[in-house]
Design goal:
The chain is of the alpha+beta class and 236 residues long. The protein is 31% helix and 30% strand. β4 and β5 form a beta hairpin. The termini are far apart.
C-alpha cells in the first residue's frame, strides 16, 4: 500500500510539473445589453453597457457607468428649467471587439454629458480584458517599457493625424495631445488588425473635429508588446 501511494505521488508530481494550459476564453463575449433609463423634468439618463461572459469584466464596466451616472446626477439635482430651459442629459453607448480567437474582448464606451453650455462633453472610455481569466490588459500590461513604446506610438499617431485632420489640424494641440504620456494613450482596444488608440474631442484637435482614432498594426509594434500578448496576437 505505501509503495502504491508513493508511485501515485510521483506520477502526480510529474504530471503537475508540465505547463498548465490556459483556460479557454468564454464565448460569446457579450451576453446582453444593460440599460439605465431615468427621466425627470430636469434631467435624462439613457445609459447602456454590455454584460460580458465573464463576471469581473462586467463588474468593471458596470461600476464605471454607475459612478458616471451618480456624478452626473450630483451636478445639479434640482435643475430648474425656468432658469435654463434645457434638460441635462447623459447618454452612453458601447462597442465590443473580440480579437484573436476570442482571447481578448475590448469594450469602448462613448459618453455624452450635457449640463449646459454651447455643446455636450464627449469622451471615450475603454477596457481590454483577457477572457481566459477576466483580467484587464492595461497600458502598463501591454507595454512593459512604456517610455520606448509610447515614444514610437506617439510618432506614428502624429503622422496619421497630421495627414487626416486637414483644416482641423492645430499643431500645438496635436503635439500636446500626443505627448508620450500614459494619460494620452490609456484609451485603446485590441482588434484583429492592431491596437486602436482613441482621442476625445479637444485632446488632439478642436471639438468640431470630433473623436479621433488611430489603429497601429501589430507588426509595427514588434519588440514593444508583452511577450504573452505577442504570442496571442501572432506578431512575427
Amino acid at each position: 500500500m505505501p509503495r502504491t501511494l508513493t508511485l501515485l505521488t510521483v506520477l502526480f508530481l510529474l504530471l503537475g510539473a508540465s505547463p498548465l494550459q490556459a483556460a479557454p476564453p468564454c464565448t460569446p463575449p457579450v451576453l446582453a445589453a444593460v440599460s439605465i433609463k431615468e427621466q425627470t423634468s430636469g434631467f435624462k439618463v439613457d445609459a447602456e453597457y454590455p454584460a460580458l461572459c465573464s463576471d469581473a469584466p462586467t463588474r468593471t464596466v458596470r461600476d464605471y457607468v454607475s459612478r458616471t451616472v451618480h456624478e452626473f446626477k450630483k451636478t445639479d439635482p434640482d435643475h430648474d428649467l425656468r432658469f435654463f430651459p434645457h434638460p441635462y442629459e447623459l447618454i452612453t453607448r458601447y462597442a465590443v471587439w473580440s480579437a484573436h480567437n476570442a482571447r481578448y474582448a475590448s469594450v469602448k464606451l462613448h459618453v455624452m454629458a450635457y449640463t449646459g453650455g454651447a455643446h455636450p462633453n464627449n469622451w471615450p472610455m475603454t477596457w481590454v480584458f483577457d477572457m481566459t481569466d477576466g483580467k484587464e490588459i492595461t497600458l502598463e500590461r501591454l507595454f512593459p517599457d512604456r517610455k520606448s513604446a509610447l515614444s514610437k506610438v506617439s510618432g506614428m499617431c502624429r503622422e496619421v493625424l497630421s495627414a487626416s485632420l486637414g483644416d482641423m489640424l492645430l499643431p500645438d494641440m496635436l503635439e500636446a495631445g500626443l505627448a508620450p504620456t500614459d494619460e494620452n494613450f490609456r484609451r485603446f482596444v485590441l482588434t484583429d488588425e492592431g491596437v486602436a488608440f482613441f482621442f476625445g474631442p479637444y485632446q488632439v484637435a478642436p471639438y468640431a473635429a470630433g473623436e479621433q482614432v488611430v489603429t497601429i498594426p501589430y507588426d509595427h509594434l514588434a519588440g514593444l508588446m508583452a511577450p504573452d500578448i505577442v504570442t496571442a496576437t501572432g506578431i512575427q
